[in-house]
Design brief:
Elements: E1 5-8, H1 16-25, H2 27-30, E2 35-39, H3 41-50, E3 57-59, H4 65-68, E4 73-77, H5 93-109, E5 115-118, H6 123-128, H7 136-148, E6 155-160, E7 163-167, H8 177-180, H9 183-199, E8 207-211, H10 226-240, E9 244-249, H11 257-260, E10 265-268, H12 271-281, E11 287-291, E12 297-300, H13 317-330, H14 334-340
Parallel strand pairs: 1-2, 1-5, 2-4, 3-4, 5-12, 7-10, 8-9, 8-10
Antiparallel strand pairs: 6-7, 6-11, 11-12
Helix pairs in contact: 5-7, 9-10
């Protein structure tokens, strides 16, 4: 029997507890693979009561998940008592979120979890508590490196059945994105994407469509030189390594249906170039997948939504998609994790 999935509670004052409760309640209907939540069981029970849902919550160990999951939501204690109210993070928020992530990574390396699904965190809350990493992705890479002793280059991919996109530069002010762009960064990102799409997603020869940075991919240097001098040589390097890559392509014609059918992943040069099309096509069921890690990590493609936390209005669709994708990908991950140690 495979290990269950580990689900972190995320920012406790956000909608993470809400969508976890709603997903578990639909476990039989949706055929969800067993998972356990890392958080504060008392807090989860209180949140369910707050928006009028009856749910059984059981403090558990990962090993007890399969026996408990059909009748109660298994919760592994994160070691931090949560005091935040829905929509109002407090001094317990960041420690609880961070402790859950660390616990999940330890569990997956110990073989207690087959993969990790993370509920949304609030970066500003983490930063106020002294969190040094830009976000989940970088922190997971740091923790992985501590376990493996190897440098980890994480790559953020947003995936849905309609489209998969990878932003090469991520959370940067737009003016800084061209300065951060380099041939080396594009090539390393493309290598990781091609490898994980083959090893995890089972695509024998992944097709990468590489977007240009500038309008019309720079028009051969007449609308900016980055595409000619940085993006095009990176694509040629990927092709020389046997990777099916093409570009730079004009981003304004890459995302209609016929174009999407010609590639498996779009590599985009900055955050919104990637996220606008996928959130337009798959706002309620897109999944954030971290490539480059020695284990599967997925997350809902949305934030903490403090304004509706505790109301019962949060849509669990993206979390359900993240759980389903993690279960699918984790079946291919055991050999990768073993080789990473």
């Amino acid at each position: 029997m495979p290990s269950p999935l580990a689900l972190t509670a995320g920012e406790p004052a956000g909608i993470g507890p809400d969508i976890t409760i709603k997903a578990w309640l639909r476990r039989a209907e949706l055929g969800l693979s067993p998972f356990y939540l890392i958080g504060d069981a008392r807090y989860i029970a209180q949140r369910a009561e707050q928006f009028g849902v009856k749910i059984a919550v059981a403090t558990a160990t990962p090993e007890e998940t399969y026996s408990i999951f059909p009748k109660a939501l298994p919760v592994v204690d994160c070691g931090v008592a949560v005091t935040a109210k829905a929509g109002k993070p407090d001094d317990s928020s960041a420690p609880a979120a961070i402790a859950a992530i660390k616990h999940a990574v330890a569990d997956v390396f110990a073989g207690k979890a087959s993969g990790i699904v993370t509920n949304p965190v609030a970066k500003n809350v983490l930063y106020r508590a002294g969190f040094a990493e830009p976000g989940h992705t970088e922190y997971l890479a740091k923790l992985s490196a501590e376990f493996t002793g190897k440098a980890i280059h994480p790559v953020m991919m947003l995936w849905a059945p309609e489209l998969a996109v990878v932003p090469v530069t991520i959370h940067l002010p737009l003016v800084q994105a061209p300065r951060a762009l380099s041939m080396e960064l594009i090539v390393e990102t493309g290598r990781i994407v091609a490898r994980d799409m083959k090893d995890r997603f089972g695509i024998a020869c992944p097709r990468l469509a590489v977007a240009g940075l500038n309008p019309h991919a720079g028009e051969d240097g007449t609308i900016g030189t980055e595409d000619r001098d940085i993006v095009a040589p990176a694509v040629q390097m990927l092709k020389s390594e046997g990777i099916d890559a093409r570009g730079p392509l004009s981003a304004d014609t890459m995302f209609h249906q016929a174009a999407r059918e010609s590639y498996d992943v779009a590599l985009c040069m900055y955050h919104d170039q990637a996220l606008i099309p996928i959130k337009t096509l798959a706002f309620d069921h897109g999944v954030n997948v971290t490539l480059g890690l020695p284990f599967v990590r997925t997350s809902p493609d949305h934030g903490t939504a403090f304004d509706i936390a505790g109301s019962g209005k949060a849509d669990e669709s993206s979390l359900v998609a993240a759980l389903n994708l993690a279960a699918r990908l984790s079946a291919r991950t055991a050999p990768l994790l073993a080789s990473a140690k």
